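Subject: Sanity check before I submit

Could someone independently write out the structure tokens for this chain? I want to compare against mine line by line before I put it in a report. The sequence has 297 residues.
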Amino acid sequence: MGPVDLEALTASYNSAATLAGTLASAWERNRIPVLLVDDGSTDGSDDFAAGCEGVRVIRQSNAGPSVARNRAILESRAAFVLFLDSDDLLLPGYREAFEAALAAHPDADVFVCGMQVVDDDGRPIGHNAAPSLQPTAFLSILGGEPVPTNGIVVRREVFARSGLFQPGLHHAEDLDLWLRIAAATDKWVRMDHTLAVYRLRAGSLSKNGNAMWQGIRQVVAKAAGRPVGASRQRRATARHGVANAARYVYLTAFSPLLRQQARSSVAGALRELARLPVRFWPLALHDGYTSIRRRRK
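---
Independent answer below. Compare away.
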């Protein structure tokens, strides 16, 4: 395929059910080549990817997504990379939007766009605009503005300053890296487009609410201690970020569980609520009250 200026990095493990659409969204719709690190798949998805145009495959023994992503960063030949999970998609126009933003900001290190959220069947269920990056990229992300994994394009040389994904983190590893990148460079550009599609799948890692909550709190606390800007502003922003994270974790992980339980047993839902961290009780009570009011109308 020759030298490229932009490459999609995909860590894949037994992703046969979704990989075809993911790869097509990069190469067929956007002419973005893909470097796929197969993390020990046993479902034949690695052989499928190897037969796809525009895709380069590296195979390794199973070591986890962070190790696979790091391998892709180190093996990439591109000046800029984006991360494309094996069940997510890029919308048409992604490459054109990036190239236009790069032409307007040739010294920028990071470009970020908005995200559409879909369910297992591809139905839209949510949308997040690109982060404002105000007052700074670091504070914007620390305060809880979401950065889609497949909606951030990074100049590859920046990883020499920020470091790579932390294999010991199993939740919020993306957030951890984005914050370290923002601490390493303030040359971020907001692309005012929705170009990334995130699939919120039943049983995905992000559904493990307690672990996700602990991971986010750990990452935010660590970032709040970094010497970036004024310490008082960092601490205040971190508190706001934790509050936003609590709402996100509740809506994506805990609320569906409680609603499902309540359909069969209100007492069972209350028992499930009692098991949640106290931080989520007011959110759950407000959610329940709102649901009751809707049913009465």
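---
OP: Matches mine. For the report I'm noting this point. The chain has eleven helices and nine strands.
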